[in-house]
Design goal:
The complex is a heterodimer of chains A (153) and B (118).
Chain A lengths: L13 H8 L2 E6 L4 E3 L7 E7 L2 E8 L2 E8 L5 E2 L13 E4 L3 E7 H10 L1 H37 L1
Antiparallel strand pairs in A: 1-8, 2-7, 3-6, 3-8, 4-5, 4-7
Helix pairs in contact in A: 2-3
Chain B lengths: L5 E7 L2 E7 L7 H13 L4 E6 L7 H16 L3 E5 L3 H10 L6 E3 L2 H11 L1
Parallel strand pairs in B: 2-3, 3-4, 4-5
Antiparallel strand pairs in B: 1-2
Classes of the chains: A alpha+beta (153), B alpha/beta (118).
Chain lengths: 153, 118
């Protein structure tokens, strides 16, 4: 099975991609079903092939804050599984019938133990993505504070 | 690459419609602010934000909208919102955006209600 191109695997050699394709599973998840929930143990990370998945975080019981929607093939989710403490930091729900490639954390860790350069590339790509997300979150905080200043000044 | 929002401005029945295409996130801030301030400079005191039903509005987009609504309130502008999916109507209600702007089922409903609001 061919791996869907995604940012996590950017710069990885064909041989490494070949080994990764040996551990991937294709899964189908129906619309409305949760892929994983915030706080669950991160046992796998996923690459979207078809469909759409929404990421949300629970603010308080009954109120989910929308974080993003993934629609394009190659978009990744569940990357918290790759980083200690390996706990999903958001919940992911399919908003359409979706097809995803799943990479089991334990199997991926074994591949990385056998090939540290693979691990280095994956973590480098992940760090770049997480920095982008951090900058976006900071931007959001600034917007909130500008609003607060409108009320306090 | 951050996505751009396409926002078109239209005047109807003494209200200014801002039609917003694309997902709304923190990166939408410059586009939304420019459109809002442009309408304000033209003297708009009734503004109807028209979203695309397919648009996804995340936490950052909600923050940007609240910022604009706060500014509009300071200027005593009346703001309405329409075009939201049921999912986002529920979220907007939960975060209290409805305290700043009424949510309407259609552009016509919004224009009619805002016209009689004075």
């Amino acid at each position: 099975m061919q791996i869907c191109s995604c940012y996590v695997f950017e710069g990885i050699s064909d041989a490494q991609l070949g080994r990764l394709s040996g551990i991937l599973r294709e899964i189908r998840v129906g619309a409305g079903r949760w892929l994983f929930q915030e706080g669950d143990n991160g046992e796998a990370f996923y690459v979207l092939l078809e469909g759409a998945v929404e990421k949300v975080t629970l603010v308080e019981p009954g109120f989910e804050l929308p974080i993003s929607i993934l629609r394009a093939p190659g978009e990744c989710l569940g990357v918290s599984a790759l980083v200690p403490p390996h706990v999903y930091s958001l919940s992911a729900r399919c908003v359409e019938d979706s097809v995803l490639q799943a990479f089991d954390r334990a199997e991926l860790e074994q591949l990385i133990r056998d090939d540290y350069l693979l691990g280095f590339n994956i973590m480098k790509n992940l760090a770049a993505y997480l920095l982008q997300r951090l900058n976006e979150t900071r931007g959001e905080l600034k917007v909130h504070f500008r609003t607060i200043l409108q009320f306090t000044h | 690459m951050q996505p751009k929002n396409e926002i078109t401005t239209e005047t109807r029945d003494a209200a200014t419609l801002l039609r917003i295409k694309g997902d709304v996130t923190v990166f939408s801030e410059p586009f939304l602010k420019e459109a809002y301030l442009g309408a304000t400079r033209q003297g708009a005191n009734r503004i109807l934000l028209v979203f695309d039903k397919e648009s996804y509005i995340n936490s950052g987009g909600i923050a940007v909208l609240i910022q604009i609504l706060a500014e509009a309130r300071k200027r005593s502008q009346v703001v309405g919102i329409t075009g939201l999916s049921e999912h986002f109507k529920k979220i907007f209600n939960m975060v209290g955006i409805t305290k700043f702007a009424k949510i309407y089922g259609s552009v016509e409903e919004g224009l009619s209600a805002m016209a009689s609001a004075g």
